[in-house]
Amino acid sequence: MFGRTAKPDAPKQDHSHEQTGRTNVVQLPKIPKGPSRVHRTAWRERAAARILYLEQQADRERCRAVEDQAEQRQREKTLEGIARHLEEAGHAIRAPRRLFSGAAALERTWANLRATDVMLLGLCSQEDLISRSTDVLGYVEQHLAPGNPLRVRAEAVAERMEVKEPQPGDRGLLVLALSASYDALDAEVRRVRSLSVILRIATFFVLLGAAGLALWGWYCPGSLNLCFLPKGELHAACPSGEVPLNGNDVPSHYAQHTDVLVTEAGGLAGAALTVIASLRRIQGTSTPYMLPLSAALLKFPTGALTAFIGVLLIRGAFIPGLSDLDSSAQIMAWAVTFGAAQHVVTRFVDARARETLSDVGRAPTDPVPGAPGTEPVPAQTGHGRTDDA
């Protein structure tokens, strides 16, 4: 499944779950053959290891037979479904990588692995069910609200199983609780992915707007005039440099093609300073989507845009006392200042990104202290597991 090539004379291993005679429901891409198992990204390597582990668990369950023939046939059907899920996950991590296909492959992989984990919980022995109840309870407490009926009943079942044998219906309840926890985890990760995509789209459009202004200033410099005519000076102060006066008192006459571009470059420098300063607050995330990076990238084109708008407001005498700038150095200094000031706008995006990341692995709501029928719940620490099935 993972591209391990065997010697020509080596016999092909016979896995019962591979020869089921099933027709694929999904048209799977052909898996490229290679000399070694290389997946190129960290999450694919971790997923490959997880698939191998789940395959071993499935083989273990396949070796354990039951006396009831009807139950045995049901177990065979479930094992066949497990093999299908693992096959889908294997194709997802080995499929050729295309542009913007990484998120889809990641979701496809972990969705199938989590479904496999749930199905294995329904097949395991009573001894394994007792040992796994603690792990299931950990997922339930991380991703389900304290008042959720499944969480309440799963906590009671796990507590009872510590001293007594499982009762009829306990297995089904734990299976439902684990499935609901994985669904809640998927919803949390989807919110992170959605916000990351929104930020990248916003970054693209802001960058497009800044680039459009730079092109406009290049071809029509007089229409986006950023030059000043300081009193008592023999030159016009423009962002790209001082221009000697030639008797014309119209500032747009001295506008240069690179004025807007130079101003936006100053804004980019100011935004870069704020990004560097914000690195001290950036923490790693266990989610597979680089949300902090998406929030940081938005600062650069926003800084370029705020620098242009700020200098344009000074040029229009909108800010009292700053109607005239004496040199191009002053213009660039204000451009850098306005570029750094983009943090006033983007700090709300940073706060939203931190809030979204903190919600991963944490129950949606906590019980209100002192409310009737509630008991104090110890605070959860750490982040939930988002890329392990």
UniProtKB/TrEMBL annotation:
Keyword Repeat: no
Superkingdom: Bacteria
Residue ranges of the TM segments: 197-219, 260-279, 300-319, 331-349
Positions of region (Disordered): 1-39, 358-389
Start-end of Basic and acidic residues biased regions: 1-20
UniProt keyword list: Membrane, Transmembrane, Transmembrane helix
Signal peptide: none
Name of the protein in its database record: Integral membrane protein
Native species: Streptomyces hokutonensis
Taxonomy of the source species: Bacteria, Bacillati, Actinomycetota, Actinomycetes, Kitasatosporales
